[in-house]
Design a protein that fits this description.
By secondary structure, the chain is α/β, with parallel strands linked by helices. The chain has a single domain, classed as 3-Layer(aba) Sandwich (Ribose 5-phosphate Isomerase B, Chain: A). The chain contains 6 helices and 5 strands; from the N terminus they run E-H-E-H-E-H-E-H-E-H-H. It has a 5-stranded parallel beta sheet, sandwiched between helices. Helix 4 links the parallel strand 4 and strand 5. The longest helix is centred in the middle third of the chain and has 14 residues. It is globular, with a radius of gyration of 15 Å. It starts with a strand and ends in a 6-residue tail after the last helix. The model has no long low-confidence stretch (mean pLDDT 97). The structure holds D-ribose (RB5). The site of D-ribose (RB5) has 8 residues, from helix 3. D-ribose (RB5) binds next to helix 3.
Length: 150
């Protein structure tokens, strides 16, 4: 798979670990966004928007975003049209955000998960495929944004 990767200062060290894991597994890193050291402060919305726009433009690519909790980068990435980004802490959710929600971006919290769990979550995300069918209908409804009052 082809990945655009990014983190703020809170996610720098985990970003390096996961880039190495992706390369070891034979995946392509198309771009890396964010500081090179935890001392170099970066605002997570800027990193998340940059990566999300790259994924949106590069059809078939995926994104990996890391901040302290994973929450800030996910919230910011989801503001970019057509992007579905999810924070996960467990293997089941890592698979399901691909299988049911067709997420293109996996978000992780470097202050929440350890390196080995993060690698496992990333590999679960990669191993899953979008199931389509009724899930495609629901994903389309997400994009539409309309509800009972919409
Ligand atoms: C940075 O200190 C921290 O706020 C950020 O990494 C992230 O956790 C935000 O959601």
């Amino acid at each position: 798979m082809r990945f655009h990767v990014g983190s703020d200062h809170g996610g720098v060290e985990l970003r390096k670990v996961l880039i190495e894991a992706l390369r070891d597994d034979g995946h392509e890193i198309s771009s890396v966004e964010g500081p090179t050291s935890p001392d170099e402060k970066a605002d997570y919305p800027e990193v998340a928007h940059t990566v999300a726009h790259r994924v949106a433009k590069d059809e078939g690519s995926f994104g990996l975003l890391i901040c302290g909790t994973g929450q800030g980068v996910a919230m910011a990435a989801n503001k970019v049209e057509g992007i579905r980004a999810g924070v996960v802490l467990d293997a089941f959710s890592a698979r399901m955000i691909r299988a049911h929600n067709d997420a293109q971006i996996l978000c992780l919290g470097a202050r929440v998960v350890g390196d080995e769990l993060a690698k496992l979550l990333l590999r679960e995300f990669i191993a899953a495929d979008f199931e389509g069918g009724r899930h495609a209908r629901r994903v389309a409804k997400m994009e539409d944004g309309a509800g009972a009052d919409g």
